[in-house]
Predict the structure.
Amino acid sequence: MRYNSGVMYRVSNLGWQWAEERAVAHLRELGFSDARQGVRGADGGVDAIGTGVIAQVKDWARPVGEPPVRDLHGTAMAAGTRGVFYSSAGYTRQAVEWAGRNGVALFVLGFDGAEPVSQAAHALVLNGSRRTGRRVGFFAEQRRAQVEKRLPDLRNEIDDVSARATLQAATGSTRKRRRAEDALRTLREVRRIVHRIEGLDPTAKGLDRAIRDVQAAVRKARGML
């Protein structure tokens, strides 16, 4: 599965050098003012480097999986610095989940910018805005607070309904089992949507509506039981 917004132009076919140059420019936008291209070597090396940061850039035709992200994290830990990953084709679900657990910043690199897809990447964007004097508006901060407050409760509600549906699918009558299986299918889709929401900038407009839609879907699933 590819994790990106679908709104940025792909950088593939422009060449790895262009991709690395764009990543360096983005690192500077984040506040790493001395960022520069690294020394090219074997795959898995450092493509960009600066004070406090190293980056890997993949201009692949397919999403980046977990192993390259894990390798970058290990290199960054050994160097006592932060690891940032750029991919032109997004990331697999496993890569995004691993990065989320280990605090790796993942960006999707496009012709018109770099989009954060992990919480560590969102934090870098916010901190970069503070360092470079760009401000996140009051209403954007309000959206951030609301999203960060509501998502844990939403995940707990999904878990609760899923547990009830699983039990009913195993022990209920034929009719109840079918309804429980329908509810579980709905909840699996809801989990995918929530996972996608968690990978977006919490200040983005429209997330409040997306969360309300998810809540409505969870209520529908509860009503099936």
User: Anything to note?
Assistant: Residues 1-14, 132-136 have pLDDT under 50 and may be disordered. Helices lie at 16-29, 66-79, 93-102, 119-132, 138-171, 174-198, 207-223.
